[in-house]
Design a protein that fits this description.
317 residues, alpha/beta, 7-stranded mixed beta sheet, globular
Length: 317
């Protein structure tokens, strides 16, 4: 890490991450797993909930009409956004390919995504909100959070890369930790999604140089706490349709949300699984590593001190 450590002042930051809550194309139905997860989140009362995208079921051809997309969003807010707001839990979002895609033909869905979230901007300490709710940055308990707009396969745009570099240079050194979240992961995790990732070594080098601690992603519908090059890459399971198998595993990851507790010295990562979301996923059921043609991610509890990383504990050990 090139940046000096800035203390939490003894505080613990508790972050919950939900992802891929959508059902089949055009669906306005959110299953019981969503409601049970939200009830559990209300009980746990984290400092922040992050959604890593795919909150509604768009990106369909023939294209959905405005009223069809808006009905999906009303259902989403009823099941997740409004209950969290009532509980006083801030929700930070990043676009997914099914709700804010930059692929050609889905401009209306992306416009509606912005229309939905601008009035629901959380009461957080923003340091850059010019591009909210797509890519933006904010502070919680002296941790810098950065949302990236990553809904399409391949590298980020040059403009977004320049923006990210400026944010990390300007604000990174003054905060205890730096956390990135986006829909697509930097590297692949799941079977059937081996080609659906960002895959930019320049982005990886930038994050390493800036001392980024965590990279949170969705899209692959499988929980895995992986480590590569000094960064913990945490892939989220889905809460909606389509749980997937990790590369190297024959078992689908159960629906879950992830809870991360950050302090100066420790990172505690727990994925709470359905049906009641009070039982952690046993890390021993996960592959020791995720190997793809482009990257190898080591399960974080198996990474030794030689990697110069902070302690990460698996639940229930």
């Amino acid at each position: 890490m090139l940046f000096p450590a800035v203390a939490f002042c003894g505080e613990t930051l508790r972050i919950a991450i939900v992802s891929d809550l959508n059902g089949s194309y055009g669906s306005t139905h959110y299953g019981a797993s969503i409601d049970h997860a939200v009830e559990r989140l209300q009980a746990l009362k984290p400092d922040l909930v992050i959604s890593t995208g795919d909150m509604v079921a768009g990106q369909r051809k023939p294209h959905l009409k405005r009223n069809e997309v808006e009905v999906m969003w009303r259902a989403f807010h009823e099941h997740l956004s409004d209950p969290l707001a009532t509980a006083g839990i801030p929700l930070a979002v990043t676009p997914g390919n099914h709700d804010g895609s930059t692929y050609h033909g889905f401009e209306l869905e992306r416009l509606i995504y912005a229309e939905q979230w601008v009035p629901r901007k959380p009461a957080l300490q923003f340091v850059d909100e010019d591009h909210y709710p797509f890519y933006y940055a904010f502070i919680v308990k002296n941790v810098l959070f950065i949302s990236l707009d990553a809904t399409t396969v391949g590298h980020l745009s040059p403009d977004q890369m320049d923006w990210l570099r400026e944010i990390l240079d300007r604000y990174g050194p003054n905060h205890s930790q730096r956390v990135i979240f986006s829909h697509l992961p930097l590297w692949p995790f799941a079977k059937g999604r081996e080609t659906e990732y960002i895959g930019d070594p320049e982005l990886e080098r930038l994050l390493q140089h800036a001392g980024v601690r965590l990279y949170l992603s969705g899209h692959h519908h499988a929980f895995y706490p992986g480590h590569k090059g000094g960064i913990d890459y945490i892939s989220q399971s889905c809460l909606g349709a389509g749980p997937r198998r990790l590369i190297g595993s024959g078992t689908k990851t159960p629906r879950s949300f992830t809870m991360i507790e950050l302090t100066d010295d420790d990172t505690l990562i727990t994925a709470f699984q359905e049906p009641a979301f009070d039982t952690p996923i046993d890390w021993s059921t996960l592959p020791p590593s995720i190997r793809s043609p482009v990257a190898e991610l080591i399960r974080v509890d198996l990474v030794g001190k030689a990697a110069n990383r902070l302690k990460t504990e698996s639940p229930g050990r």
